[in-house]
Specification:
Layout: H1 5-12, H2 21-39, H3 49-67, H4 95-101, H5 103-112
Helix pairs in contact: 2-3, 3-4
């Protein structure tokens, strides 16, 4: 796991301390999986602070996107989120910012995991 629950609550997203434990675990797992997918794998420790900030931002987006659809009086999940919350469109997906933040970690991961090969033409 790139970002632990303790790190999330103590440093990166203190509002998570008030969440239900099951929801916290679900959204944190989703955020970590999203980051691992964007990077292309799990980078070697120590994990960069930028990566942890990006994961906490993804956590916030996932949690807000799900909880924004809950009807406050009944607790039922509505078909559409109330006005004022983000809408996912191809042109303004909030996770695009997270993808950009993870770009450097992705390039570093790819550079560290390439195999050396002969990049010249060989004549037999």
């Amino acid at each position: 796991m790139l970002l632990t629950e303790a790190e999330l609550i103590s440093t990166y997203y203190k509002k998570a301390a008030k969440m239900e434990p099951d929801d916290l675990a679900t959204y944190l797992a989703r955020a970590n999986a999203f980051a691992t997918g964007v990077i292309g794998g799990e980078p070697a420790p120590p994990i960069d602070t930028t990566v942890k900030v990006a994961i906490s931002m993804a956590f916030e987006i996932f949690a807000q996107g799900e909880t924004a659809q809950v009807e406050e009086l009944t607790g039922d999940i509505t078909e559409a989120a109330p006005a004022g919350y983000y809408s996912r469109k191809a042109k303004d997906d909030p996770l695009d910012i997270v993808r950009e933040m993870l770009g450097a970690a992705k390039r570093a991961f790819e550079a560290g995991n390439t195999t050396s090969s002969v990049r010249t033409v060989q004549f037999l």
